[in-house]
Design brief:
Helix content is 35%, strand content 25%. With 212 residues, the protein is an alpha/beta fold. The strands form two sheets. A nine-stranded mixed β-sheet has the order 6-5-4-7-8-3-9-10-11, sandwiched between helices. It has a two-stranded antiparallel sheet with strand order 1-2.
């Protein structure tokens, strides 16, 4: 089982679970997803972040600031830098896809990180995709759906935990309904007068609204 952290009141999910992390902008949904990854890293879980918004070096630095844990079992797939005209070279913990639409490359690099962790005897891994909204800016829903069907399948077959951030207000109800079919549950994040709160739904261990 994968523990999700203190914000989820001790809830756990089965290996192979894929969770959508959805909410409006500025509600802290990205922080929630990173905190779930950081919670696992402190326990020795491997961590892979696919970033379509920020460059890989910044994401790696931010993640290191959030949690101590095995450095060797951390990987970032950067889908931003090459698209911006840079020519970075892969390094130990950061690899580069040509753009957010390089879905084949993203999938290959995810598999390579997971295989590398397995060789290091890391059997528990958490994967964060930030964010699906960027994919939908560059590709149509059908293409994104097909890609995510394969991607979530890889997470499931690896007995990993997958987290997928999306701006719920940027997409119509049909798009959100279609994407939800791919996931085992959802972390819903909303704004309140006192800040933000979250709710886990659709899986065993579902929670009521909790302050973040």
């Amino acid at each position: 089982m994968y523990e999700l952290g203190t914000a989820f009141s001790g809830s756990e999910v089965d290996p192979g679970t894929n969770l959508l992390v959805a909410g409006p902008p500025m509600t802290g949904k990205r922080d929630v997803a990173f905190d779930v990854l950081a919670h696992g890293r402190r326990q020795g879980d491997g961590s892979v972040v696919v970033t379509t918004k920020d460059n890989g070096e910044d994401v790696l630095s931010e993640f290191d600031d959030r949690a101590d844990g095995p450095v060797s079992a951390v990987g970032v797939v950067d889908c931003v830098s090459k698209q911006q005209g840079m020519n970075p070279r892969d390094r130990d913990h950061v690899t580069y896809a040509s753009s957010p639409v390089d879905m084949t490359g993203i999938g290959i690099q995810l598999s390579e990180f997971l295989e590398s962790f397995y060789e290091q005897d890391v059997r528990r891994n958490r994967v964060l995709f930030d964010s699906l909204s960027t994919l939908l800016m560059y590709s149509d829903l059908q293409t994104v759906f097909r890609f995510l069907h394969v991607f979530t399948g890889r997470v499931q077959s690896a007995d990993a935990l997958g987290l997928y951030v999306i701006d719920s207000t940027a997409h119509d109800d049909q798009t959100m309904s279609t994407l939800r079919q791919l996931f085992d549950g959802e972390v819903a994040v909303r704004e309140t007068d006192d800040g933000s709160e979250l709710r886990l739904k659709g899986v065993d261990g579902s929670t009521d609204w909790q302050p973040i």
